[in-house]
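PROTEIN DESIGN WORKSHEET
SECTION A - STRUCTURE
LENGTH: 151
TOKENS:
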């Protein structure tokens, strides 16, 4: 059996924990908060460290030092953070859903994340390229989309 099927999140090694990330980049999109309602809105603006094509962090080991509001996912916060995508492996496993069919650990191919439309690859704008008065123009709903559970 695969480790994600036989272990809970708290039983996983650091290597197994890191392997759960499907590399979609959704968690690295900047969120906006409506000042009146408190509602979080996802934008198509990506963190300054996220590569817009590969969806990899360009300085993963130092990301929290370079981006102070970067949140390291932990066993404790993965179930508490409201903006964790529904497609996120950490969230899915914590909710007892297991990995999706398109997840690279299941499909054997990281391209499936892109092919199914979960990846943010090629769909974002770099944080530094967005003018402060245009943030609202970058509100998008596509990061909330979930592919079907089966083909």
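SECTION B - SEQUENCE
RESIDUE ASSIGNMENT:
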């Amino acid at each position: 059996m695969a480790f994600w099927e036989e272990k809970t999140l708290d039983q996983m090694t650091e290597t197994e924990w890191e392997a759960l990330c499907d590399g979609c980049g959704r968690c690295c999109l900047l969120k906006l908060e409506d000042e009146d309602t408190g509602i979080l809105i996802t934008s198509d603006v990506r963190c300054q460290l996220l590569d817009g094509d590969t969806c990899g962090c360009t300085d993963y080991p130092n990301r929290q030092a370079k981006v102070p509001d970067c949140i390291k996912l932990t066993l404790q916060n993965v179930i508490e953070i409201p903006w964790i995508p529904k497609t996120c492996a950490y969230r899915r496993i914590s909710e007892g859903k297991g990995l999706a069919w398109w997840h690279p650990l299941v499909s054997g191919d990281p391209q499936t994340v892109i092919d199914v439309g979960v990846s943010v690859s090629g769909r974002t704008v770099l944080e530094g390229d967005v003018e402060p008065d245009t943030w609202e123009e970058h509100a998008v709903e596509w990061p909330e989309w979930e592919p079907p559970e089966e083909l």
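SECTION C - NOTES
The helical segments are 3-6, 14-19, 63-66, 89-94, 104-107, 111-115.
The chain has a mean pLDDT of 94.
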